[in-house]
Amino acid sequence: MKLVSLKDIEAARERIRSVARVTPLVDVSLAAGRPLWLKCESLQPGGAFKIRGAYNMVAQLTSDQRSRGVITYSSGNHGQAVALAARSVGAPAVVVMPTTAPAIKVNGARAFGAEVIFEGTTSLHRRARAEAEATARGLTMVPPFDHEWIIAGQGTLGLELLDQQPDVATVLVPVGGGGLISGVAAAIKQSKPSVQIVGVEPSGAAKMKASIDAGSIQTLASTHTIADGLMAVRPGDLNFAHVRTFVDRLVTVDDDAIGSAVGWLFTQAKIVAEPSGAASVAAALTADPPFAGPAVAIVSGGNLAPEDLLKYAH
User: Fold this and answer.
1) Pair 281, 261: CB distance under 8 Å
2) Longest C-alpha distance within the chain, in Å?
3) 51-141, what's its fold?
């Protein structure tokens, strides 16, 4: 299985430059009581890192593929990113979301012009429906994580992070299906191998850790966590290969720690993060001893409804 190269990621960086923002790296070491910086991908168009991979793929489609349209399956953030990327190149977009998708993410995808279809509650349900729709309607699939173009796009975050903090010692990355950590780890390990890459999963959805521990891809019977963007029951094939090659450690955090991190980010760092985006911060704040610093936690998304923020920020 061919892994994404540094050249692939550098090409993606040029391709997405006009669409994806260079997000800030914020020093919160004083508030955290340990050397900690936050990479604020919550400030990307669409409110999450996903625009990097989505646009990198959509921009490489043929004119015929664009005219027929694209489809994806997503718990929310990737769907919004595909809708935004498709709109930017004049392509129709369809997004298959779970019946449990937060309204803020559904409304976001629709606001960017996507048709939204609801199907089931797991990534496997959504994928099956999206594949059926793609076949029936002649649409091109833009998968959420298991594709080299998606991984290369997400990897641009890793290059950006190294530019902003060349002395970084540890990078903490939330893990859902594995697209973000695959790209970030590939970019950083092929540029500066000494940096420790730590994947962070909710304890109720630790599919990547289960797979790495077993030495083969595992599918969880179910997942339960407040981090809706990290609830995939199975890692992607290509993502598993990247994690096995480039990632140093996988850790888990429980929902209480994730919820506390959402509240801490708002009250102490003045950053709005959804639970999925705060998982890395939860691990950084609770690690004993702390991760080697300078440590950077990627805040991967900020699509959180105001009423949900009130549950955590008190």
Assistant:
1) yes
2) 55
3) Rossmann fold (3.40.50)
Going 247 to 208 to 161 to 151, the CA torsion angle's sign is positive
> Is 51-141 in the same CATH topology as 6-45+147-312?
yes
What distance in Å separates the CA atoms of residue 254 and residue 160, rounded to the nearest whole number? 29
Tell me whether strands 295-299 and 36-40 are parallel, antiparallel or unpaired: parallel
| Residue 207 Cα distances to 140, 183, 250, angstroms | 27, 18, 10
Q: Which ranges in 138-176 belong to alpha helices (H)? A: 148-164
Residue range 285-313, pLDDT digits in tens? 999 999 998 999 999 999 998 888 989 98
Phi-psi region of 122 (alpha: psi -120 to 50; beta: other; left: phi over 0): beta
Tell the residue number behind the tokens 């998708």, with chain if given. 101
The pLDDT tens digits of the residues spanning 132-190 come to: 999 999 999 999 999 999 999 999 999 999 999 999 999 999 999 999 999 999 999 99
What is the domain partition of the chain in residue ranges? 6-45+147-312, 51-141
Chain-centroid distance, C-alpha 289: 26
Query: In whole angstroms, what is the distance from residue 265 CA to residue 278 CA?
Result: 8
pTM for the model stands at 0.93
As a CATH number, domain 6-45+147-312 is 3.40.50.1100
Strands 196-202 and 249-253: parallel
Structure tokens that stand for 41 in this block: 């991908």
Question: Where does residue 23 rank: exposed (0-12), middle (13-18), buried (19+ CB within 10 A)?
Answer: buried
Tokens 């950084």 belong to 284
| Edge-to-edge strand list for the sheet holding 140-141 | 115-118, 93-97, 70-73, 140-141
Please list, in sequence order, all residues whose beta carbon lies within 8 angstroms of the beta carbon of residue 138, skipping any fewer than 6 positions away.
68, 69
Q: In terms of residues, how long is the chain?
A: 314
Residue spans of beta strands (DSSP E) within 74-180: 93-97, 115-118, 140-141, 170-174
Residues 6+ apart with CB under 8 A from 184: 154, 155, 157, 158, 161, 171, 173, 197, 298
Are 165 and 296 in contact by the 8 Å Cβ rule? The answer is: yes
